[in-house]
Amino acid sequence: MILPISFRERIVLYALLTSLTSLSIDALLPGLRQIGEEVGGISPLSTQHIISLFILGMAFGELFLGPLSDAIGRKKALLLGLGVYGVGTTIAMLAGSLEMVIIGRFLQGVGVSGPKIATRAMIRDQFEGDAMARIMSFMFTLFILVPMLAPALAQGLISFSGWRSVFGIYLVIAAVLGFWLTMRHPETLPEDKRIPFRPKLLFQNGRRILSSRRVTLLIIATGLVFGAQLLYLSTAADLFFDAYGMRRSLPISPSSRRE
Known about the structure:
Layout (H helix, E strand, L loop, with lengths): L6 H20 L5 H8 L9 H24 L1 H20 L4 H29 L2 H33 L2 H21 L14 H12 L2 H31 L16
Helix pairs in contact: 1-5, 1-6, 1-7, 3-4, 3-5, 3-9, 4-5, 4-7
């Protein structure tokens, strides 16, 4: 007999599903130079699209998987996202060229938007007020913590097993989270509250949102801030290896001193 999922277990599951986004970005940073050397990206900044197109895929996926979660349910949309994420991870892990790595990363971005959007929708379906605020604050604490730890841990993994092992870890995490969600978490959106997927309605709602001057200005401001962060993440490896003379690893490792 499967016991009902507890409040604490829900929080841990939500936090891990949400942290998959930041883990997929930051854990790969120490391996960007190695990827470029192995699959033929020899020009300066040749690997920056491994990060930027992941973000593009995530933005595209949110436009699709968000409304889809309202139509078919949170759980199905989340599992669909994890499935796409797994396909993209496999393509990138087995890639023999930089182009295939980038295609895999784009699919990863599309897929990771499922856990990102559907998890927040699940929380809104079940909680409100102080309870929802506590859960969201815990999730964002972990979201901030992951970028601090992921590059250091991944650096050690890459040193022993190469950059493909990072994608192997991504695949295992996605499979574990998908199994956990399937076996333990119920659907949170009843069928009578679901909204049919209608592209025309999406365009109409998008036009209404963008017609608000205040909302448009907030979108622009957020885009500028996030754009600066994306620029740094995309060029971090080249910045440390070329501008600061690091040779084998990011600064966390003692072997990265100047020669």
